[in-house]
Design a protein that fits this description.
Radius of gyration: 15 Å
Oligomer: single chain
Structural class: alpha+beta
Number of helices: 4
Largest sheet: 5 strands, antiparallel
Strand content: 35-45%
CATH class: Mainly Beta
CATH topology: OB fold (Dihydrolipoamide Acetyltransferase, E2P)
Distance between the termini: 10 Å
Number of domains: 1
CATH superfamily: RNA polymerase II/Efflux pump adaptor protein, barrel-sandwich hybrid domain
């Protein structure tokens, strides 16, 4: 991967996976989300407040940016890529090379 300037490791480095939410189990404090992408199944624990704020629902399509032990769930990929483009206007030229 080509590292573009002014992007943090959390923003861009890692593997982007498209998956479907299989199961959402929410309690008062914690929530569990199970995502399936092909043969791979990912189980994520997060706070219930983050789950509500992200708007994750069963059978919805999400993107997971996995970098080491960090997993970022992206529900709206267009909004996420637009924010990356605003941080670095030259990002498109780096992706083309």
């Amino acid at each position: 991967m080509i590292a573009a300037p002014r992007l943090t490791n959390r923003d861009f480095n890692g593997q982007l996976i498209k998956g479907t939410v299989l199961e959402v189990d929410s309690g008062l404090i914690n929530a569990s989300v199970m995502i399936q992408s092909g043969k791979r199944t990912i189980s994520i624990m997060m706070s219930a407040a983050e789950l509500v704020k992200a708007g994750i629902a069963v059978n919805s399509t999400v993107f997971c940016l996995m970098s080491g032990k960090d997993i970022t769930i992206i529900t709206d990929i267009k909004e996420y890529m637009t924010s990356l483009q605003k941080k670095n206007p030259n990002l498109e030229t780096y992706l083309v090379k």
